[in-house]
């Protein structure tokens, strides 16, 4: 196995790309969807089950892990891979986004963000240097530069100031990351929905130089149309030969639209979180398993799906265990949702490789428009 981090493109269809990221911990087929393992677990899933859905990589959250159980503790226990029993690649976010959305009493300065933990009120400081240190202690394979991101909509001057701060932090992240063969540091493009700011950000990041690039600051309340508007040009501003990661996205139709526009990696809590609230994602759109129409339905959630929830259980059973508050409800629906997302990614990769992206996209939308199977 390779001892270096590398990315190779295998096929292009329009702007859509299929490729392979190689790391010492394994390969990541792109376009890739990364399940979110916030607190060193993808909720309701054993790690081997996450791998069985087809995931090549998962995401861990720096903010959560630094507060509980603590990065130094995870390091003492052998690193995040060993701690959570996941030996494939892990990407960690920088903590920048979550500290601004979750922490109490935040104070943002040029140095970084001082805050109090939402868990126990303890005082902390996150800076580019500390974020790099935490992600190194965790043993992350793909490390994200420390950045700041305003919620949209926001004044253009606010977005510009924030983006320039993030670019200064990107340089500090690069300097603090050091020389770590086999590990990658990704820079994060900011600039909201303003093309000139996105260009300025891309130029700044490319001058620093990263192993991959994220399009940040989207999926923060701007809506799909505005997001696709940015993705129509932003990926093309980044180096062709490096992976491009769209953070925090999304719904299945967001993913298809993002891949169409040249995105290689995505992550979202949606499939796992939905699985715990009785929502299933299928080829035919969203199914609410709580609905009384499923109570007597012996058919699987999706007869074409090969996940354990669809192979071995009926809609009636899934309805019953959800209504009864049984733990297996979260386990089965999360498994199905993650399996569906990975099936979707495999379909996208195959379609791009075959030069049939447009046909795949048309079929994807046609099946969703047809809706769920008729009630019995
Ligand atoms: Zn299924």
From TrEMBL:
Keywords noted in UniProt: Glycosyltransferase, Metal-binding, Queuosine biosynthesis, Transferase, tRNA processing, Zinc
Where's the tRNA-guanine(15) transglycosylase-like domain? Answer: 15-369
Q: How does it assemble?
A: Homodimer. Within each dimer, one monomer is responsible for RNA recognition and catalysis, while the other monomer binds to the replacement base PreQ1.
In what pathway does it function?
tRNA modification; tRNA-queuosine biosynthesis
Q: Which organism is it from?
A: Sinisalibacter aestuarii
Name the SUPFAM superfamilies for this protein.
tRNA-guanine transglycosylase
NCBIfam families per the record?
Answer: Q_tRNA_tgt, tgt_general
Reactions catalysed according to its record: 7-aminomethyl-7-carbaguanine + guanosine(34) in tRNA = 7-aminomethyl-7-carbaguanosine(34) in tRNA + guanine
Cite the Pfam families for this sequence.
TGT
Residues covered by region (RNA binding): 248-254
Name the residues annotated as catalytic in the UniProt entry.
Answer: 93 (proton acceptor), 267 (nucleophile)
List residues binding Zn(2+). Answer: 305, 307, 310, 336
Cofactor(s) in the UniProt record: Zn(2+)
Family membership noted in the UniProt record = Belongs to the queuine tRNA-ribosyltransferase family.
According to the record, cofactor stoichiometry and binding are noted as: Binds 1 zinc ion per subunit.
Q: What is the lineage of its organism?
A: Bacteria, Pseudomonadati, Pseudomonadota, Alphaproteobacteria, Rhodobacterales
Query: Gene encoding this polypeptide?
Result: tgt
Residues the record lists as binding substrate: 93-97, 147, 190, 217
Protein name as annotated: Queuine tRNA-ribosyltransferase
Q: What does this protein do?
A: Catalyzes the base-exchange of a guanine (G) residue with the queuine precursor 7-aminomethyl-7-deazaguanine (PreQ1) at position 34 (anticodon wobble position) in tRNAs with GU(N) anticodons (tRNA-Asp, -Asn, -His and -Tyr). Catalysis occurs through a double-displacement mechanism. The nucleophile active site attacks the C1' of nucleotide 34 to detach the guanine base from the RNA, forming a covalent enzyme-RNA intermediate. The proton acceptor active site deprotonates the incoming PreQ1, allowing a nucleophilic attack on the C1' of the ribose to form the product.
EC nos: 2.4.2.29
